[in-house]
Every structure is written in C-alpha cells, then in structure tokens.
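Reading is simple: each integer encodes one residue's backbone shape. An example follows:

___
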Amino acid sequence: MSYCLNPHCPKPHNPDNGNFCQNCRSPLVLKNHYRALKPLGEGGMGRTFLAVDEDRLNAPCALKQLLPAREIQGNSQAMAKATELFEQEARLLLYLGERHSQIPTLLAYFEQDKRWYLVQQLVEGRDLWQELQHEGAFNEAKIRALLLDLLPVLQFIHDHQVVHRDIKPMNIIRRSASAASMAGSVGSGQLVPIDFGVSKRLSAVGLNNTGTRTGTEGYAPIEQLRGGQAFPASDLYSLGVTCIQLLCDRPLNELYDPIASIWRWRSRLWQLNRTVSDDLAYILDKMLEDSIEQRYQSAAEIIDDLTPLSAKKHAPPVAPLMPPPTPAAPPVVPTHNSPPDLSVLPAQNWECLNTLIGHTGAIYSVAIAPDGQTIASASEDKTIKIWDAETGEIRQELTQHSAPVNALAMTPDGKLLISASADKTIKIWQLETGFLLRTLTGHSGAVQAIALSPDGKTIVSGSADKTIKIWHRQTAQLKKTLKGHTQAVISLAISPDGKIIASGSDDRAVKLWQSKNGNLKTTLNGHNASVSAIAISSDGQTLASASGDKTIQTRQLDTGKWLATPKAHSSGFCAIAYAPNPDNFTAAEGHILASGGDDKSVKLWHQESGNLLQVFSGHSDTVSCLAFDPQGRTLVSGSSDKTIKIWGVNS
C-alpha cells in the first residue's frame, strides 16, 4: 500500500505501485526515492510515516513531514520558526546520528511541493509507553537497566552541547531483536531516544537566556515550561518522571502532589503493594527535584550512584551493626570484662499482643503515651487515629490535615499530641479530646519530621524546604530557622538534656546543632542514601542513624566517632528506636536498638556486640516507624501494609 502525503487528501490509501494518488493526483514517491506506506504517529509539528527507499532495494526508513497546527500555518513568523526547528532537527540527527549507534541517522532532508521532509533511520521496536501497555509496570531491575542503557546516550548528547527537551516514554524506543539481527547489530533491546524536534544547542540556552517554552506537560521541568530554559539537568528530570511512571503505571496527576509541590510516587507504589530499594528511590527523587540546583547535573553522576559500592574504589564504611555470628564463630563482645546484662529485654518472651487495623494508607508515624495506654498513628490517608492500646479500639480520628501526616510526637505529660504533615503545617491537639489547639505555619514544603524537647516546651520540625524550625510550643512563636541541609530534612531527634538537635536528610548527611543558639556543631557523613531515621539513647551517649543504603551507623554523640566495626545488611532500614534504659543501667551493659525496614520485620539488637536478639515477623510490607513505651516493655511498629502492631514482653 502507498499512502498519500497530501494532508488534505480525503482518501490517502493507494495501491502498492502507483506513482500518483488516485484521489488527489499528488505524487506518491518523493524525490523519486521515498514512498510512504502508513502513518506511524502525529504530533504538534508534524507526521511520521513508515516508508521505503525504492532506490535502495525498498529499504525501510522513517519519513517525517513538517505539518504544524493550523494556527501556526496561518502565522508567517510562527511558520518560519517551525521550519527553523525542523531544519535544526535534521542537522542534529546528521551530527549526532553519525557518531552514536543509539541515535537515528539522517538519510535525507528536502522540500517538495512547498512541504518540508526529513528521512531518518527507522528504529524498529516498541516505544516504552507501548511496552508499558503490553507488559505492565516495570520492576526495579528493569528501571536500573533502562537508566544504565539510556544515561550514556544522554551524556553523549549533552557532551555535544545539545539538550533533547522532550524525554518521555513515547520518545524512547526499545530496538527489537529481529531488527537488530537483520542489521547485523548487537543492539537488540537497546533504547533509542527519538524525536529531536524541539532539541536545542546549549550555547543558545545559557543561564541568563530565555527560549521557546516547550516540552510535554508533566514530563518537562518548570524551567522549560515557565522560562523557556533547558539544561542537561532538565533532560534528567524528564527521564526521572518517565521512570516513576513506568514503575507505578499510573497517570502523572496521581503521582504529583500539587499541595506539597512534590512527587508522591513512592507512597503510590506502596499502595500498589510494590516497592524499590531506597538507593534507587534516592536517585529518582534527586532527578525529580524542582530546584535545578538540587538535581543531578550530569548523567554521569547518576551512573556513578547506580554503580554498586563494591565496584567503587571510594566506597565509604557501612553500618556498624553486624548480623548474628555463626555458632562456630566466637561472639564479638564489648570491651568490658563481664557479659552484657540483657535482662531488660528478655528476647525469648516478646510476642505480638495486638494488631490495629483502620487506616486506608501506609502508616508513617506512631507514638505512645507515657502511661502506655494510648497510641497515636499518622498515615498517608491524611488522618491521625488515637487508639486504646489494650482493646485496639479507635478513640478519636483527627481529620483536619489536608495531606498525608508524616510525623507525630507526644508531650511528656501525655496531654498533647503534635503532628506534622505534607500540607506544610504543624498541628497541636489535646490528646484526650482530639480538640485542635493551634496550627503552626511557616514551612514552604512538606513537614517531614518532628521532635519535642524533653520538657515538652520546644517543637523542632524538619521539612522538604531543607530547613529546620524551632518553635515555642506554648506561644506558637517561631524562635529560629536552621539552614544547612541541601535536600529535604526527613528525620530528627533531640538529646535527653535538650542541648543537641540531630537531623537527617535526603542529602545523606547527619547534622548536629546546638539547640540554644542554632549553631551547627558538626556534619556526619558516611551514608549513601537518605537518612531515614535518627535516634539518641536515653543516656545521651549514643546516636544511631538508619538509611536505605542498608546500614545503621552508631556513633558517640559528643565526638561523632563510630562505635563498632562496620557491616552491611541485606535490606534498607526505615526506622530505629532505642529501648529506654532502666534506672540501674550502666554503660558497660550496652544499648538495645530496634530496627525496621524493607525486609518487613522488626529486629532487636545489642548495639555494642552486634548480636541479634530477636526478629519480629508479621508485617506484610515495609516497617516504616517504631516507638517504645517509657518503660521499654512495649514496642509499637507501623507499616506500609496499613497496620500497626503492638509487641510486648509476655510476663
């Protein structure tokens, strides 16, 4: 079949070998070479056809016709700009396609019958949008393979001072095995970016220059759509959006939270009972940063972060907690002479006492009242629930937040509950009645973490806006704003004496601040993914930080020095909590640490020896939060499986 290229032809389908359209008499063979067979796609600037080159034994090719929208055709200036962009696409294909096997090469560029055409190498296969529809959502391995295949191509494009400006699933084709075989190529399954129609040279889009506002809404970053600017980091943003859509298989408007101005793809993935490792999540979140300064600046940086630690010469130490030793190996013991007294937590007697069910979204935070009789939980479903710990009944449901509730804290007297939300607010509630007393505003991003001073008079909050704010609880006045993290602050803890604030961030750093004056005391590095949780022991001596990099790092709080030999684990950590120490505790006896994470279990560790005391199983998804009661005999865990479990010593 031949296809007529006259856009006004009412019946464009024609027999195979005709030279002129039977309906409008337009020529069917361009330049005596190229015959269009069928349409492949149509966009705002033109149409693409499957074609053959009759002078090359009917070799298949892709024929693109410049055909802007009618309003552009009726505007001479706009039409001149469209023609300029079309020629630019041809020049870029000529320049780049000859130099890289994963970029289509230009075969011809010409005008005929007052219409412009370009002919390029045909990339046979399905685009990633079609692949998503046929095969379903991508898993982590497939996303990693996608990034490692496509990022070197983008690095090549950027190295040649070009930005694509329209990366999306529909513009990435996976080369089919049959096509690669016919071409004698080893590129079966390779990903090929197509449609360079809005690409531009970097020299023309400097930092202080504006250009054409272009790109596909949802995939294009704000600098393209608002200011007409584009940089290598702009393409990396679009690729990040592409990846999360392929992972979640959901429309983009279900993945982006316009209230908090952040992508909520991770919680959506949890709702679909799927997850990815925190190190990949960190990479994707950094690609998706609204601020171009906070994004990866080059594809090479992402490739480096995707490279396994074992392949890096500069791999930093990993977590000090060690898996339990094998029976044949002597246990690792602390430096004191007598073995640790673990009677405070008789591991063999711990069991699940109750499972609380009622939330419709992942549990993000839990808190226990001082008397152990009341539990509060915060959820992705935007609610806070107050539970009777003994019966499991819901006493109160607090619904005034307009976005997921990320963190909770209770005052030492158990009378007030503090909540932090992605709606950028902090709320203070009467715990017994559920009455809302105050709402604190001031953060410009989602409030991700919260902590209370030991006397309950000071609230500390951490936010996606990269700041930490210190509030006077009784007056609701903002006392200080601490700046220093380069990405979202997602975990907080305050020392028992109230003098030190510890913060963890998506920037992988732990920072220690002096609470009195807000001065930065020190920055602790070593994690290779977001610092998801921070805890300080009740004696104020030890700081623990947990990360998706599969490590927990324990340090002396006053010096920042590591306390034990580093050892990696098999899955990422999302939550940690120190068990309160008894009154007769001595430092020689060690610390008990609880952890939860991607392996769906809760673990109890003896920190100093690294011995694993007990594993609690029962959750069906990531354990995202933990809290001990003040006596250390009850542990509460919250999970992405939407349940809360109460673990206790069965005496």
Summary: Residues 180-187, 204-210, 309-348, 583-588 have pLDDT under 50 and may be disordered.
